[in-house]
Amino acid sequence: MQFDAVRVDGDEGRRLAFLMEVIAGGEPGPVVVEANGRRAVYFLVPAGSTVGRPWPEGVITLNATAGRIGCVPIPALAGRTWPLV
Question: Is-contact 58 12, C-beta < 8 A?
Answer without folding.
Answer: yes
